[in-house]
Specification:
The protein has a two-stranded antiparallel ribbon with strand order 1-2. The protein is mainly α. The protein has helices at residues 3-28, 35-48, 59-83, 103-114, 127-175, 185-208, 224-238, 244-268, 275-285; strands spanning 91-93, 122-124.
């Protein structure tokens, strides 16, 4: 192999390594996200903030599709660059299949192998190339499984966030102007402790599934940024109660909201001296108005 072939091989291996690092960081590493995925998600998010109408709400799903497409592109191009120096002598075409030694032919071999279609019209001749092709097929199957897993993990996390927002709205409607102080203290304490646990779950989801932050809700009723301020009001009201049980529940809710604010501050760049300031910034960035205003 000449110098150009070695350079293409190193470049292809680098693209494959970048894809593997990004997939590992996004799907397997706790509280992490890959550089490619993070850049694409943030880019679509910045564009969505300038859009009006439904386009701003489909930006995050489109960004996820773009990330998956980028993973597949990095893998396909990377393997194609590895195959290119070995064309045409390293591969045996089937009967009637013309021989080519350009990048398009290498990309075709890579795509067929990555998708595990395996037409068999062009097969590797060298034993080492046969091993490389088999390795790519395994990578392609793993990439397909990884993307399906990513999607299946993301939407339950979004549903937990929407559930919390609906819970807060239902509480507001049921409790009325009196808020938590209008309820029997023991019952109210149980509700607030449950709410604190749900807020903690949302914080963990934002850490584990970084991409869920960039999803915006069409309806404010299902939007946590639009309703989280009411949770702060409930926590403050509970701490004014004469019931020690309700006071403790209020402190739990406040602590869970502080943890959520820390995640938003540390992972997504929201600024603010207090948790309330951070949550206000969260609401502003998602362009929602509080339901009570």
């Amino acid at each position: 192999m000449d110098f150009e072939g070695m350079l293409l091989t190193v470049l292809g291996a680098g693209l494959i390594l970048l894809m593997l690092i990004d997939v590992f960081s996004t799907l397997l590493y706790p509280h992490g996200t890959g550089p490619v995925g993070r850049g694409i998600m943030r880019g679509f998010w910045l564009v969505s903030r300038k859009l009006r109408g439904r386009g701003s709400f489909i930006a995050a799903p489109l960004a996820m599709a773009a990330v998956i497409g980028m993973w597949a592109s990095l893998a396909a191009i990377g393997w194609a660059l590895i195959y290119l120096p070995h064309l045409p002598n390293g591969f045996v075409p089937g009967p009637g299949v013309p021989e080519h030694s350009d990048f398009a032919e290498a990309l075709y071999i890579s795509l067929v192998t990555l998708s595990t279609v395996g037409f068999g019209d062009i097969v590797p001749a060298h034993p080492l190339l046969r091993l490389v092709v088999a390795l790519q097929a395994v990578t392609g199957f793993g990439l397909l499984t990884a993307t399906v897993t990513w999607i299946l993990q993301t939407y339950p996390a979004l549903n937990r966030r929407r559930t919390l927002a609906h819970q807060l709205n239902l509480f507001r409607e049921a409790a009325g102007p009196g808020g938590v102080l209008s309820l029997e203290p023991r019952h109210a304490a149980g509700l607030l402790e449950s709410m604190a646990g749900n807020v903690a779950s949302v914080s963990i989801d934002l850490l584990a599934f970084h991409e869920t932050y960039y999803f915006r809700e069409v309806e404010p009723r299902g939007s946590l940024p639009a309703t989280v301020a009411y949770a702060q009001e409930l926590a403050s009201q509970a701490q004014l109660s004469e019931s020690s049980e309700l006071q403790f529940a209020g402190r739990m809710l406040h602590a869970s909201l502080d943890a959520l604010a820390d995640v938003l501050r540390g992972k997504f760049g929201h600024s603010g001296a207090t948790s309330s300031d951070v949550l206000d910034s969260y609401e502003l960035h998602h362009r929602h108005v509080r339901g009570g205003n």
